[in-house]
Amino acid sequence: MRIGVLGAGQLGQMLALSGYPLGNRFAFFDTTGSPSADIGTTLSDTSGVKLDEFLAQVDLVTYEFEHLPLALVQQVAQEKALYPGVEALRVCQNREAEKTLFDQLSIPVADYRLVSSADELAQACTELMRAGAPAVVAKSITEGYDGKGQAVLRDPEQAEEAWAQIGHARLIVEAFVSFVREVSIIAVRDQQGEVVFYPLAENNHVDGILRYSLAPLPDLSDAVQQQAESYIHKLLDALEYVGVLTLELFQQADGTLLANEMAPRVHNSGHWTQDGAISSQFENHLRAIQGLPLGSTQAIAPTCMINIIGCMGDVAAILAVEGSHLHLYGKSERAGRKLGHINLVAADIDTLLQRVNQVAALLPDAPPPAFSFVAD
Amino acid sequence: MRIGVLGAGQLGQMLALSGYPLGNRFAFFDTTGSPSADIGTTLSDTSGVKLDEFLAQVDLVTYEFEHLPLALVQQVAQEKALYPGVEALRVCQNREAEKTLFDQLSIPVADYRLVSSADELAQACTELMRAGAPAVVAKSITEGYDGKGQAVLRDPEQAEEAWAQIGHARLIVEAFVSFVREVSIIAVRDQQGEVVFYPLAENNHVDGILRYSLAPLPDLSDAVQQQAESYIHKLLDALEYVGVLTLELFQQADGTLLANEMAPRVHNSGHWTQDGAISSQFENHLRAIQGLPLGSTQAIAPTCMINIIGCMGDVAAILAVEGSHLHLYGKSERAGRKLGHINLVAADIDTLLQRVNQVAALLPDAPPPAFSFVAD
């Protein structure tokens, strides 16, 4: 089966590497002007005029990137089977639609307000802080990822400046919540509605960019795993979703979870599954969208994913660390750019954390990991 | 690093799929006129005129196929680093040179004779049968694999017919040995001479073609593993080998091993390492040839590789079997053709063997596996 991918970055390339063994071949459609996928065919076209050429090459279409023009995706869906569907993309592109869906499905989130002016932003900030929030974060309801298009406010007086800096007509303002750790759950829904779940991962972000993901968590109770599964299951069913969906959550001191945001695709916090689970998120996404049975999401061993950001580090020394797996994206060094990742596996969590520290020391500018094991 | 591969079949494609995450890109040089690798660049050229074009695209060269014109390989080695080297290829192309090396290194083999006529073949057959062999197998000293270019003789009177059928000027005649099972060991030697070994696999052949490989073996003593390691270690050092080498052996009723033949490349009996070992044979071959540290050869779980031969079977049903991993080669169905393989992993050997039988039943014309667990 020939699979078309909207987006042509490292996620697309890793999908393709997983799809070759399933007999798939790939074409990528890039709308950013800077494709990096270097396998199969890539059509780079910021205006959409090559869309027919792309569609003629493929049997079905998926996406690896959610910041796509919605009109383009709707056009694709009229011509070819598209998984996940247009509605999933629409909701995930818009924080207002996303939060509305969370509310409809009774998935708990941090307290929030929607605002359309600097005055409303100041008012929202005042209300949320009066209710106990130590600060708020304002985000444009569209676009923005990896911490872009956002501002933190610790005082309503910062509203004018934050409004100007973000520069969007509508913002969501969320109360800062006190959390012990950031976690994510990745789930896969097939064409018959069957759903499988990976174990939760703990995610360490630095400057808004993911640095480390650890899974499975040695101290996570079944109840918390099941809570996360129930939330993402409701989202998958509501969106009649097919493929991999990621839900990022905050775990609070009492063990409970608050939903943060979701991504309608394979996700950086699921890269550990390439070497740490029986079937990876990439393979399971491909199995789902082409109507094949889903593979096992069971973890093989404690695993930690470490992003390589900005510069490559000492690749040979990293490969010399027992149980290390390198995944490079074929990109050149640039500050803040994701160049690849390392998956470390070990027989037990203590050995794993030792190896993580070993590898972190080989990556320039990588802060050591700060995992927060909590008793649920 | 840009890697050139002589040969463009499934082994080359699987090397490339393992090499992308290491940052490698690939060009293939095909001398057979029927390349199947469908990743990177392929130059198909049975006369060798495109060799310069191929060499200009790559930093170093390896091979995935040993039946290459030796002159071509020598020419490559003059232009680029070639791993494994020309000498390894020369020895592995010629059964007389291979057996001579085994003898020099005191690696035990079945009794054999070299013959250059039908009369000599009859004489060799008489001698070997008088010494106790129930039958002999005659093989051309060059070419021939998967049971091609061979004949079994149970009587010296069959010599004329066998000689004519094989049609080569020089043959090796080997005594049939009584063995309990066929096994293989795969080892990797790096540029500094460090060597790592995978656990032995048991191989089931049907009509001369590999059907099943099982590893690690639940009943194999450390002593036998070490015996196999010592044999292949001597071969690797003697050939100043860099990369993956495979040695096929017979295990006799008393547990001891006799060498059968070797292959200077990644090998079908090592495909289980893709899903059953920490680092696969493909990744370790690439690490070795580009001077990177070798990855762990440790098995993750009991694993069985099942070849898909001739027809595809029910792919969806195969993927529904817990712990199954599909690896297709992008080839169309044809009798006797290797179309792909399935790696099955399980937490224990009994569960694994149940799943193997489940999958075997889904492959048309696949005989059930016949593994022979022996007490060493």
Question: What is this structure's SSE topology?
Answer:
Two copies of one chain form a homodimer.
Chain A: E1 2-6, H1 10-19, E2 25-30, E3 41-44, H2 51-56, E4 60-63, H3 70-79, E5 81-82, H4 86-93, H5 95-104, E6 112-115, H6 118-130, E7 136-140, E8 150-153, H7 159-166, E9 171-175, E10 181-189, E11 195-197, E12 201-206, E13 209-215, H8 222-238, E14 243-251, E15 257-263, H9 273-276, H10 281-289, E16 303-309, H11 315-319, E17 324-328, E18 338-345, H12 349-360
Parallel strand pairs in A: 1-2, 1-4, 2-3, 4-5
Antiparallel strand pairs in A: 6-9, 7-8, 7-9, 10-11, 10-12, 10-14, 12-13, 13-16, 14-15, 16-18, 17-18
Helix pairs in contact in A: 1-10, 4-5, 6-7
Mean pLDDT of chain A: 94
Q: Specify the overall morphology of chain A.
A: globular
Query: Architecture of the largest domain in chain A, CATH level 2?
Result: 2-Layer Sandwich
* Series of secondary-structure elements of chain A, N-terminal to C-terminal: EHEEHEHEHHEHEEHEEEEEHEEHHEHEEH
Major beta-sheet overview of chain A: 9 strands, antiparallel
Helix content of chain A: 25-40%
Treating each run of at least 4 consecutive H or I residues as one helix, how many helices of chain A?
12
Report the sheet-strand fraction of chain A.
25-35%
Largest interface: A-B, 33 and 33 residues
Give the oligomeric state.
homodimer
Distance between the termini of chain A: 45 Å
| Classification by helices and strands of chain A | alpha+beta
From the 3D structure, determine the CATH topology of the largest domain in chain A.
Answer: D-amino Acid Aminotransferase, Chain A, domain 1
Number of domains of chain A: 3
Q: Which superfamily, in CATH terms, is the homologous superfamily of the largest domain in chain A? A: ATP-grasp fold, B domain
Give me the Rg of chain A, rounded. 20 Å
The total of beta strands of chain A comes to 18
CATH class (first level) name of the largest domain in chain A: Alpha Beta
